[in-house]
Design goal:
single chain, mainly alpha, 75% helix
Length: 136
């Protein structure tokens, strides 16, 4: 169980922060929307606090577990950059990201979020399948 505790704690913190954001601000905690509004200079105090809180995650992890989280990236930089652009494009097309649609949208029984999450998952499965077939 110790192996899964960090992921469990992370998931619980995501749910807690998304719930608090909705209850106290009346807004869905979609990361792409928050970062987008921050980039446009809209509601900078709240959006900056949320993004700083996200980036403080490794510090909290270190405080709780006495070690830094292990992150291993085995993909090439061009593939990572391409994936980042595709994710950004997809979040704009889908009017949100996995945090907004997947965490809060599904919890609110939003039909649009169900469609978005099904699309995210199907696209992810297709992308992994294609990349494995071509050997990337």
């Amino acid at each position: 169980m110790d192996r899964y505790l960090p992921a469990l704690m992370g998931g619980m913190l995501i749910g807690l922060s998304a719930t608090m954001f909705l209850l106290f601000n009346g807004r869905v905690a979609g990361i792409s929307g928050i970062v987008g509004r921050l980039a446009l200079g809209l509601n900078t105090g709240l959006n900056t606090a949320f993004v700083v809180g996200l980036m403080a995650g490794p510090l909290l992890f270190h405080g709780l577990f006495g070690r830094w989280p292990v992150v291993t990236v085995t993909s090439s930089w061009p593939l990572i950059i391409c994936a980042g652009f595709l994710v950004g494009f997809g979040t704009r097309m889908g009017s949100g990201c996995t945090s907004g649609h997947g965490v809060l949208g599904l919890a609110r029984f939003s039909r649009r979020s169900v469609a978005a999450v099904v699309t995210f998952l199907a696209t992810g499965i297709a992308a992994v399948t294609i990349l494995r077939i071509v050997g990337l």
